[in-house]
Amino acid sequence: MSKRGRKKGASGEQSRALLLAIAAEEFAHKGYYETKISTLVQKAGVTQPTFYLYFKCKEAIYQELIDLFSKGLSDLTNKSRLEPGIDFNSLPSRITKGLTGIFTFFSENQNLTRIGFFNSVEAEEIKKQLAIQIKENLISEVDNGYFQTELDMSLIAEILVGTIERLTLTKLFPGIKGPEEIASGIVHLLLNGMLSKRE
Amino acid sequence: MSKRGRKKGASGEQSRALLLAIAAEEFAHKGYYETKISTLVQKAGVTQPTFYLYFKCKEAIYQELIDLFSKGLSDLTNKSRLEPGIDFNSLPSRITKGLTGIFTFFSENQNLTRIGFFNSVEAEEIKKQLAIQIKENLISEVDNGYFQTELDMSLIAEILVGTIERLTLTKLFPGIKGPEEIASGIVHLLLNGMLSKRE
Amino acid sequence: MSKRGRKKGASGEQSRALLLAIAAEEFAHKGYYETKISTLVQKAGVTQPTFYLYFKCKEAIYQELIDLFSKGLSDLTNKSRLEPGIDFNSLPSRITKGLTGIFTFFSENQNLTRIGFFNSVEAEEIKKQLAIQIKENLISEVDNGYFQTELDMSLIAEILVGTIERLTLTKLFPGIKGPEEIASGIVHLLLNGMLSKRE
Amino acid sequence: MSKRGRKKGASGEQSRALLLAIAAEEFAHKGYYETKISTLVQKAGVTQPTFYLYFKCKEAIYQELIDLFSKGLSDLTNKSRLEPGIDFNSLPSRITKGLTGIFTFFSENQNLTRIGFFNSVEAEEIKKQLAIQIKENLISEVDNGYFQTELDMSLIAEILVGTIERLTLTKLFPGIKGPEEIASGIVHLLLNGMLSKRE
DNA sequence: TATGAATGAGTATTCATTCAT
DNA sequence: GATGAATGAATACTCATTCAT
């Protein structure tokens, strides 16, 4: 079999996947403009035309990575809709679980997350969607009397998104805290506030 | 007075300021790479060599804008250090005032903020500084028993930064809410939490 | 019979012919440079290496089409040599017949004609040959007193070629006039001229 | 002045004109696709960016040359409209003069003519326009009884265009015959025909 | 007979930057 | 203080062509 070491040759799907993985790495750390196709292919051990065999253009592979992230995230949030009508005390743990899911996904897909949630132009749109999702989840709880009724849920949703964003970058990615830990920290704070409970 | 009829009566300093203002606008909305020197000078009504009369390179003018933002922000935070030893009840308003200051600054310097707080690579460093600042402010209150002692102030500081970040983009810049309004919303939520107060 | 189920039952010769036909179509309408091998093989339902099984290179298949045209045309003109020593009155009809033959050939081989007579670099050479052929035919008539002796037969031959060329494109290919009609129109004009016959 | 020999430096208009002239030469002899920007600029003694200082893209400079030709030709034909109501005998000389004008223009602008009348895709459109122009000129003579009434003027116009085309390439450009000579040859033939005048 | 996979070599175009005046 | 003119250095992308199977 394969004499004279045809790189890995095998299935073209492999080359494609390799390029995609390397692109994720590069885009995540150098950004779109500082990532050069020439570098990508070099790291993948293929030539430039091979790149264009699998991707229409630089923009296209970038978009594909964003879509991958976006799809993963929306799959996640779709699944983790808070189901209403559950008893009061489970609320914190349910929210925590949802957040933990997100942080876990981010943690397992750091490069994709950097691209789709931080660097790309589309990041803003993705965050907007996430905020909407969260807001709807929150509102469904209001009716049940979980939360104070006068809360601006849109504001809180955005605060949550900002929080997720920031803690991902400063606590999760550097490995300072794990998904569950961060999630419960957020939940505890947001639900109870910072003040020492005084009578 | 200007002999030999200078075009548009632009003293050198004026050309420089004009270029800087236009650059802020362009960098803020198109980002570093999509902003072209050729466009800048065209909008400023000068030629390319003129640009290099005032700025060493593209990177330099960009950095100057970041520095402008960075300086403004740190001036602000330096000024608004929470002074300890003040009575308990004034805490919320003092924090609110600090945040309001930040949002006002951001609001009055949208382009600079977009560049220095959102788009640039240095943004991360700036946020990190801001978080440290906030954290120190918070810690000084802990001793006074304002806050629950078990709070992770580093986490909360990052949450605050993320919150500032997100609300600036989604509420402040679009004009949905004003600085004071946003600031007090944040403070109220973070201090008291979301839960309806039940006995 | 074809064992081992050849795809589409295409014997090699069929693939070759198919490629040739498609190439004629493409080259004729898009020209050499805008015709891509990738498009050819795609339209033929084969892969690129298959193309190179039958043709040495792009240039080669193009040349083959030109040769096909060139051969067809010279076969035609060889056959239709004006035979000398025929009586005076048959001359116009004999010339008309020759031209009709050419137009018919062109009409039946539009793609080939477009390539070999219009688009290719070789077209010039082919026209030159045709002009020589025509000139010789004409000269043989001069001796017999058919034509005015002072005519520049080389000039007239070129005029005929230009005429054929132009009318092929503007009358024959669009279907405005048929081969015979065009041929007799030319002959009538060239023999008698445009002037109204006045005594 | 100008130490250290800045090429010809002078006015940018000169560089532009030089590039245009060289482009005409190259396009005329190698065609669009075989003409490389790199060659153009090399022959002009400038660098590639300089090319793009004056022309938007390869296509643009090509089009500019075509437009130059097209404009020149239509100026010419506009000027040389046959004016009706002149006496019979002057007709041949008037037509001859018109044709001479065209051949002279072609002769003086060989490169442009090669591009605009022979090689480009637009050539066909330009010839179509020329044919229309000629046809209208001819028709205006019919009324005056110059020509046989049953002549198909569209056909004749196309014949003339084909004739012009061919003789330009085979007689004019090689310098075998001059403009006037070719023009009068055509006129004589087309008006009187080839046949020897027998009673 | 046919192909999946890959590539060598080229080619237009862009942009920040700099002389000489 | 300002400019007309020019350039060095990249970079994405294309296409005919070819292995190895």
Automatic annotation (TrEMBL), chains A, B, C, D:
The entry's DNA-binding region: 36-55
Respond yes or no to whether keyword Repressor is given for this record: yes
Gene Ontology molecular function:
DNA binding
Please report the stretch or stretches of sequence annotated as the HTH tetR-type domain.
Answer: 13-73
Q: Mind listing the UniProt keywords for this protein, alphabetically?
A: DNA-binding, Repressor
Against Gene3D superfamilies, the record matches this protein to: Homeodomain-like, Tetracycline Repressor, domain 2
This protein is called: TetR/AcrR family transcriptional regulator
